[in-house]
Amino acid sequence: MEVEEQSIEQFKGQSRLPKFAVPKRYDLALKPDLSACTFSGAVQIELSIIQSTKFLVLNALELVVDQVSFTNSHNQKFVPSDVVFDSEDEILILVFDKALGLEDGVLWISFSGVLNEHMRGFYKGTYMDGGVKKNMAVTQFEAVDARRCFPCWDEPALKATFKITMDVPSELTALSNMPVLHEKLNGQIKTVYFEESPSMSTYLVAVVVGLFDYIEDSTADGIKVRAYCAVGETDKGRFALSVAVKSLDLFKKYFSMPYPLPKLDMVAVPDFAGGAMENYGLIVYRETDMLLDIHSAAVNKQRLVIVTTHEVAHQWFGNLVTMEWWTYLWLNEAFATWISYLATDSLFPEWEIWTQFLDETAEGLQMDSLESSHPIEVEVHHARSILEVFDAISYEKGSAIIRMLMDYLGDDVFQKSLSSYMKNYACKNTKTEDLWGVLSEESGVQVNALMDTWTKKKGYPVISVKYEDCNLEFEQSQFVYSNMHSDDCWIVPISLSLGSCNKSKNFLLETKHCKLDISGLYQSSDGNSSSFEKNQEKLSENFWVKLNIGQTGFYRVKYDHKLTAQLKKAIEDNCLSASDRFGILDDMYALCEACQVSLSSLLSLMKAYRKEFDYTVLSRLIDICSRVAKISSDALPNLVNDVEQFFIGLLLFSAEKLGWEPIQGENHMGAMTRERVLMGLVNLGHSRTIDEAMKRFQAYVSDRNTPLLPVDCRRAVFRAVMRNTNTCNRNGFESLLTIYKEAQSVQEKSRVLRCLASCPEPDIVLEVLNFTLSDEVRGQDVIYVLREISLEGRETAWTWLKENWDLIIAKCGDDMLLHYFIRNIVTPFSSHEKADEVEAFFATRETASFAMNLKQSIEQVRIKARWIESIKQEESLEELVRGLACIG
Ligand SMILES: [Zn+2]
Question: Top-level CATH class of 577-887?
Fold first, then answer.
């Protein structure tokens, strides 16, 4: 292209920056003013001009540019004749009169901005210091908000080194990716000079300025690790610190690659939109995900370990080797998710964490059953839609297909490949095929051919299996909740296990149909092939077939009637592993929601889980009970009590075994299971549990140290209090608000918030929602309230959302937190009328940052509407439910 033909218009509406220049090094100085909530800064960017140009185009947003100049390698200075901001495309266009030649130079920009209140870019947080509320400053750049802090080439592939300097109040701590080189005191202000970083992406740059104490430890090879906490609270960071140190050692060994930086800091901040952020060398956490104290339940402790190992893993997977573009985000998130389980299993083998991983798989399957799902590798057209891709497809489906692939290739080959991948691509950027290349080389398997169907298109298969004349017949088709099917085929690693002879078989299903003669599997050791037929009658008693052994595959299975009945018996006879029991239940539930099997069949299967005691299976069972109870209240209002009675009956076995107080010598899983089962019973309205909960709550209100309310029971008890609250009886509600206000523990505070909106009385739900938008609740914490709005309060919540939409955006910003409002307030509905109403409301509003979330939420409403119609047509359901309720 001729230089003269270039015009500003060509840069608009592009998803990526033009490649005229590439940055090599940033020298960035920042000076936040914490009382005025503003900042000023200057950046010198060393560039290589790789295409002669009159324009330099980089990213900037909500910044005011003061001065700009470009100095070339001959020390000639060029000042742009025009500086154009395009806030729609989030770019800054510098127009020069004369074309810049192919050479290196330094771009210098001075600028200023506002420390915003929306937990993105360079933002303001608050903390309490001796009863006084004070300001701090934090950054959160992923995905595309570095540009809100300083002008930069804000794309993951444009790696550069960073030399950061900060002017901060002398009494505060300033943290960044690298260690402090030196500090210079100048009255009330100190200048902190950080060491220069290795080459890294802009989204991983970070600074934090605030008042902290820290504790320190080191890894076996001397990497210093620190946990920064609020003053006087460092004890709460001790557990996370030990997990981080252990995981650094573990990943170094696993990847055969040392941790790339001289230090790792972790800091807990009181205002943080996500869970944690893996900034290179400086992990920033939401407090609940890093701090542990006597008010932390087993479930909090486990989440802390998962989050910490995830963020530490990113230091390699993401920070050292980075995705080339957001399309390959899954390379970061799916791997960090998968390997956080691997690390947690190694640190806490008694947690049975790989069984719990099935919750991740289930979430991925659930979202990928929607028409409005997306492929793992997703095209990204606009910066503001990138955050929507941080979802169950990138994390959960991604990590589940990695597990499936590892299971197929073998652990050793997989680990060897990952360490070659780290070596080959250290400090570089990759696409999915780069990883497949390394895996193919190590394993000899054509990994891209195998995996393309899983990453390049949305959806996954359901395998229908029939048994006839010693043959198993398989058929694959896409699983979707709606009745829209594609003819797509996947390459599916099938594993199957045959009951009564302890035999298993693995094969790849590559076509739509396939048949497998299983009589050979019954051959006796002396090679007598007729034993199957001879013993067929005897075998049929204990005969069962289970596909997807251990649920390592990302697909569902639909068994024919006979096979289902045999599996049900195998569950009752305790012949199957917890993972397999989980899979059978989860698949049956999904098939039911998709109207492919009846509710009667699902309920009959659930009956087989009466003696269930495994945490993960029970947890899934309870979740399904809650979903079915909700759909029943819309589809079968006359039967909902009976449905609930039946479900209560399913949970009583484990509830009686567990009791209310920790059993002597009880492990982590016991505490987790008790919390879950009690919550389940409270939600189902089990009066004995609720009465007991109310008694124990009174004891807790009088004495916060009472042994009658162990921390792992508190969530259920708080929930029971709110289920018992109404406008005439508000005492429990008021007591909970007092507990919230007085609590020093972030875990206790979030526990209260989680239960408040579960009240059945709409007026109280409204009061709670308004409270959520008040100054008493931090913006980051609204998600806790929204997640658990009662079914009775859904209409109130929707009306409230419509009336307060502008206020919500003012408090929570227009991106990530909004996803929670949409999902949690829209999805509880179950009618086409409501879906239409939601569509109409948003038709006239700006939805760019949550368009996909909105579409998925509305689709879920329509799926339920269709499900209700199907349930209403089921004959003999009433008879079945009444029968099940009696035996409950
Ligand atoms: Zn992550």
Answer: mainly alpha
Mean pLDDT by 10 residues, the chain (888 residues): 63 92 98 98 97 96 97 95 94 96 96 96 95 96 97 98 98 98 96 98 98 97 97 97 98 97 98 96 98 96 98 98 96 97 98 97 97 93 86 95 96 97 97 97 95 96 93 95 84 91 89 91 55 54 90 97 95 95 98 97 97 97 98 96 97 96 90 97 97 97 95 97 96 97 95 98 97 93 95 98 93 84 97 98 92 96 98 94 85
Alpha-helix residue ranges (DSSP H) falling in 77-189:
none
Active site residues: 311
Tell me the residue type at 658.
L
What lies within 8 Å, CB to CB, of 287 at 6+ separation is: 268, 269, 270, 272, 746
- Number of residues in the chain: 888
CB-CB contact of 419 with 439 (8 Å): no
> Distance from first CA to last CA of the chain, Å, rounded?
77
Q: Quick one: 688 exposed, middle or buried, by C-beta within 10 A (0-12, 13-18, 19+)? A: exposed
Q: Which CATH class is domain 461-568?
A: mainly beta
Give distance in angstroms: CA of 320 to centre of ligand 1: 14
Phi and psi at residue 704, in whole multiples of 5°? -65, -10
Separation in Å, CA 345 to CA 256, 289, 309: 19, 18, 11
Domains 3-211 and 461-568 share a fold: yes
Q: What are phi and psi of 178, to 5 degrees?
A: -110, 165
Q: Where do the domains of the chain lie?
A: 3-211, 316-455, 461-568, 577-887
**Distances from the Cα of 456 to the Cαs of 166, 370, 379, in angstroms?**
44, 16, 10
Secondary structure of 559-620 in HEC code, one letter for each residue: ECHHHHHHHHHHHHCCCCCHHHHHHHHHHHHHHHHCCCCCHHHHHHHHHHHCCCCCHHHHHH
Q: Is the dihedral of CA 94, 100, 102, 103 positive or negative?
A: negative
Residue 330 C-alpha to ligand 1 middle, in angstroms? 9
pTM: 0.96
Distance from the CA of 317 to the center of ligand 1, in angstroms? Answer: 9
Both structure tokens of 401:
């297909």
The superfamily in CATH containing domain 3-211 is tricorn interacting facor f3 domain (2.60.40.1730)
Q: Is 494 exposed, middle or buried (0-12, 13-18, 19+ CB in 10 A)?
A: buried
> Pick from 331, 477, 343: which is nearest to 418 by CA?
331
Record: fold of 316-455? Neutral Protease; domain 2 (1.10.390)
What is each CA distance from 784 to 3, 241, 482, 763, 845, in whole angstroms? 54, 26, 30, 19, 25
Is 244 within 8 Å of 312 (Cβ atoms)?
A: yes
Residues whose CB is under 5 A from ligand 1 (ion)? 333, 336
- Cα–Cα distance measured from residue 736 to residue 174, given in angstroms and rounded to the nearest whole number: 37
Whether the CA torsion 655, 656, 657, 661 is positive or negative: it is: positive
Measured CA to CA, the distance from residue 875 to residue 599 in angstroms comes to: 10
Distance from the alpha carbon of residue 247 to the mean position of ligand 1, in angstroms: 15
Residue 368 has φ and ψ, to the nearest 5°, of -80, 0
